[in-house]
Write the structure tokens for this entry.
Amino acid sequence: MRKLAYILLFVLLSVSAFAQNTEKDDLLVSHYTEQNGLPNNIVNCSLKDKEGFMWFGTWYGLTRFDGTRFQNYSNAVSIVSDQPPRKIETIMEDGQGNIWIKTLDWKLSVFFKRTERFENIFDELKPYSRNLQIIKIQSTPEGKVLLLTKDKSLLQAYTLPDGRIKVQLIASSRGKINKFDYQLKDNLVDIRSGYAGWVGKDYRIFVQPLKGSKWTKKQWYTYFQRKSVESNVYKDSFGCLWTVGATSIKYFNPRNGKQKLFPFSYFGRITSPSFCDAGEHGVFYLTEAGEALYIDRKTLEMRNVVTLPQLRDEKHGAHFFSMNMDRDGILWLSSTNNGIYRFNFPKRQFRIIPLPPCDKEGVRSLFQLKNGDVWVGTRSKNLYVLDINGKLKFKYSYDRYHIGSVYYIMADHKGNLWLSTKGDGLVKALPDKSVEGGYRFVHYLHNAANPLTISGNNVYITYEDSHKRIWVGTLDGGLNLIVEHNGSIEFKNKYNGMKNYPGYGLYLEVRNMVEDRWGRIWVGTIDGLMSFNTNFDDVRHIKFNSYRLTETNTLANSDVYALYKDHRQNIWVCTFGGGLSRISGYDKKQNLPLFKSLGKREGLRNDVIVSILEDNSGRLWLGNDHGLSCYDPVTDRIRNFDNTDGFPHVDMEETSSLKNSNGELWMGCKQGILAFRPEALKTKNVKYPVYIVGCQINNRNIRSYVDDPIIDKAINYVDRLELKHSQSMFTLEFAALNFHNRDGVNYRYKLDGYDKEWHYNGSNRIASYTNVPSGDYTFVVQAIDTANPGKISSCRMQITILPPWWATWWAYTFYMFIFVVTAYFAIRYAKYQLKMKNDIYIQTKVSEFKKKFYLEQQDKLFVDNVSSIIDSNLMQEDFDIELIAKQLGMSRSSFFKRLKALTDLSPSDFVKERKLACAVELLKTSELSIADIAYKSGFSDSGYFGKCFRKRYGMSPREFVNSQK
């Protein structure tokens, strides 16, 4: 009976806890207010456009949301824009992507997104209606917008690619309304402009293209009346019908006939009703009174959304203006005075197997027996046995069995279970069918008086190596080896045999251990890794290797949380703050392990890994405080799971994991056991568009350059940006329109032509550049969804930095022109200068020549006169220099200087030279004797004549005469 009571209690508590957990984790709600950038907390409507942006109509105007930042259009951006509307009630997008806006004061505007221009609509309505007030707008499948005027005429409007606005009349209310209150006398049907239109007394409007239909107004009346009734009935994704009445909404399941009525709590009309189907998560309904209701699909229980724990900041009785489920399955709820709520609905892919209330401290160990039963060790010192699906089968309470907080469970080769407990030593469980629970327990505790007992009572790990030896790791006494001696158990440790164990009190806090393929056991401690070879004969010969003062310790980051061996015999090390490392080998020379590490850089969401487990496909599942990571060694990719994937809010426990034989993976946590099927986990396989959503030039918004505009349209439509040289400092903001999980998007960007490498920006959406040289560049930004690393979205923009005016082509042309003109005149001036120089040179040379010629003539005449005087006085005995100077009218010294300068001969030598020249001539032409010739030449002594002649001509006069013959 006690066992049955435990099981019933456990089942009831499990159902209750699971329901509470579902309520907590199924809906992810984000809240946005003025503090987040909204222009006003009164939000009347919402819209997701074709490009993926969210638009909201608020009391203070229109705003655009990209998942992080609100771009408000409360003030005109374009100088040609009309005044932006306020008090926006409804917004619709037409086929050209422009937004039609209806305000609470029944005015109509169009916002042209491409040019960021507002245009108020008045004149376009005048030909079709006497009353220009618009009380309702509604989009059509054709991309047009239906307009219901105050006098109940139905118009259809749309924009053209060139920006013109077209309006056509669909249904005229002339003669069909009460002129005093503008109310319809009856439902209105009209056929014109190729359409059949309906305006109901309840303000419902419909339009249908004729497409060749020959129906009469009566037939169309019947059709639209049925359609009006059917508009009160919604069919959800499960085939169930929801019928809306004046005071309630009715549920009906055609498959089983089940039905239920859900009454409203508030009445009145402040908005248009809206029905949103959230699939397995339930349905939402917004009443005309602004009451937002949530109906759980499984329990069929209804509650006001303000009572959900995710909306705890919303006051009870709060109302809402709009509810919109966008095409990506996200629900947007606009409140009357408290901003916007975004509802995400993650898949229900994880389940929590809760434990009884007395075990709220967490699951510390998991172990599955061969029969499929799972033993669960808890911090509360109770040990549970669950079946393969998580249902309770038995409880080993601490009060009765005194087992303790089981941190690890191991089965040896004999079928015995070894339970490692914190504070209660080591417990051996021996199978025994004769006792309740099927096991007998033997306790091994530390005894300070007996050195052969276990070295500590805080046991974290028990491990059996390839030699069938059992090792025990304690957190207060280091490593132990179990030895059987004379039928009793002894524990060998550093105090009684392991003499080579590290000293100084290190490596005594053992958390885990594992043996690699080479027979080396790796021990994870708070002080880092330690290892030893299992090939030994005596514990005294064990050589322990530690790596505290090496790079290995840095990689292990000191505190080793988990060691794991996969099916490929690889050893994985999980550390606190060090990510995940694989021991890829061992350097026997240096006695050091070789590591390959994975951390945040490689894609891990968190570097603190507390648990690791391998699935049937060889992928590693890593548990941390922020979620779950899956690493595939084959593709070398990491996939992170968080609350947007349905991961519940749990606190993971260290090394508490199990691969269940039913295909599930179980991981221990504070809240119980996290269970999931790896092959069943799905992610949103969506490629989110990326846009450039902001730009600043020299720290100014690019649209603030009004006098000299840089762009003429919204930045997200700009493909090419041309900047001046003085505008080379710019900042670009980009956004991937991921409203499911903005933190799951990482960015990288590059300015081709300037950057050589990618800038990895994480989740930061800003790229800044300063003093970029003039030239043509391409800015490229890529968004990588961590949920789908293979899917990359990108956006490009051509950016041209113009050169300064003095470096433009026309400046260079001007420089060339100036250079050519300058060169031309320089050459002409040079030629002129050269000509002048040559003329002066020639004139100078001519003058010098003339002067020289004159002087030469005077000198020649002087020399000739001297020669003539000498020739005429050769035979005079009293002829001397004084005579020559006197005949020339010169002093002796002047004569000497001038003759010396002209002939380089002294007067006496010149006279001698003339006499010898006369003698040579006589020797050639006369038959006179040598003596006579000497006399006639002015020599009184023939011997002296002969000496002078030989000296001058190198031969005697006689020899000269002979040479002439």
Residues 809-872 form the longest helix (64 residues).
